[in-house]
Amino acid sequence: MDYLSKKIEDIEIRINRGVCISAATCVVYAPNTFNIDDKGLAIIKEKDWDRVEKIVAAAQSCPALAIEVYQGGKRMYPV
Ligand code: SF4
User: pTM of the full predicted structure?
Assistant: First the structure.
């Protein structure tokens, strides 16, 4: 299992890097939130994230369903 999670204020993002296929559409939808590391897998930036709508759009865009988004403890995606 290669899980990554980060929380800023009431938003929490989790990435299951074990299923990430390096498609990088998350970076296209939310470039201030996601990046690709030197292994080609998604990582979560430290600060100044995109608005939650963009983060959810990024999660929806992921072909591997690798991204989960929570707001205030409630799961926003997948629903
Ligand atoms: S969109 Fe999904 S599969 Fe593609 S890099 Fe991001 S987390 Fe990985």
Answer: 0.95
19 lines ligand 1 (CB under 6 A): no
pLDDT at 13: 98
Residue 59 to residue 68: CA distance in whole angstroms:
7
Domain count, the chain: 1
* Amino acid, single-letter form, for residue 9: E
Secondary structure (3-state) at 11: strand
At 41-50, the pLDDT tens digits run: 999 999 999 9
For 65, the domain range is: 3-77
- The CATH number of the domain holding residue 34 is 3.30.70.20
21 lines ligand 1 (CB under 6 A): yes
Total count of residues recorded for the chain: 79
Q: Tell me the HSE value of 33 on the side-chain side, using a 13 A CA sphere.
A: 27
